[in-house]
Amino acid sequence: MGCRNKLRVGLTYNLKSDVLTLNEDDQAEFDDLDTVNDIKRALESAGCIVYPMEATGSIINTIQSERIDIVFNFAEGLKGRGREAQIPALLNMLSIPFTGSDETTLAVALDKALAKKVIAHENIKTANFQVFFSKNDRLKKGMKYPLIVKPNAEGSSKGIIDTSIANNNQELYSLVERIVVHYNQPALVEEYIDGREFTVGILGNGDNIEILPIMEINFNKENGKGFYSYRVKKHSIDLLSYTCPALLTPDEERMIKKFAKKVYSALQCNDVARIDLRLSKADNKPYFIEINPLPGLADGFSDLTLIIRAAGMKYDDLIIRILNEALKRYGMDTI
Ligand SMILES: Nc1ncnc2c1ncn2[C@@H]1O[C@H](COP(=O)(O)OP(=O)(O)OP(=O)(O)O)[C@@H](O)[C@H]1O
Ligand SMILES: [Mg+2]
Prior knowledge:
Largest sheet: 6 strands, antiparallel
Radius of gyration: 20 Å
CATH class of the largest domain: Alpha Beta
Strand content: 15-25%
Bound molecules: adenosine-5'-triphosphate, magnesium ion
Structural class: alpha+beta
CATH architecture of the largest domain: 2-Layer Sandwich
Distance between the termini: 6 Å
């Protein structure tokens, strides 16, 4: 191991303090300096020269002034539903290689309704849904309560509160209003899939895709229905636990892995992603919830960093593996 010619790696990120807060969870998706430092340290330990770059408007000058071989992209972007695509689009424009999925995949995945349309086209099961642009929109025929109401283009359970489940029209329209007003974006209303919840990490490309051990999220059912709300995630110790590898029959395991692989290919992901799904109690089949092609990397907190432990990988191995997958994809020497 070690970079033969000292690979020059740009590390793009957005810190929590980059953005002014409007809502209490407004910065939920942004990263702590600790995580940026952890990634930097992992890359340096493999012999790379690392150039951390805050992904703000001035990044274009920084990137061009350093002779960067490849970027380890970790930036959530600044604004809009295409925000995760901003840095990859810029890097592609400048012909600079980067880790992870490209701008098209990142933009589609962040818009959950668009991603569900792509997924449904591939005959992958996902809950029936409807996008509400305002609380004056009316629920279409065939949508069955209970319904879960979430912002259409957020992550980190942002905007998902313990009461995000509607059992009747009155609850539905007030939840929709909350999302439209507070999050300034359409609300995604989905049929609630009752069943066990899993998240699946994937590494690699093409025929060399590795599906990591499946992780189950076990909810403490104190609120009736258990789901991954922002509060649950923040206070995870009391409210949930994880099992990885999940306890599944060999058939279930095969079915979920095949499902995850199909989702990864349908969205044309590169290098790494994490897929959230539920095994419906009704038919024991996996239902797509969402895909995270830019998964969180906070050591010991983000799901992917918990999953890799079960696969016998250390945090640094994960970071170097992601970089190597990208280097291979570009036909460059791995480290
Ligand atoms: N259709 C559904 N049926 C049942 N539960 C759901 C559904 N959609 C979302 N949930 C619950 O809400 C949680 C958060 O939803 P989702 O994964 O879409 O949000 P997110 O904020 O993008 O998550 P992440 O933190 O993984 O980025 C899920 O993990 C699941 O517990
Ligand atoms: Mg999720």
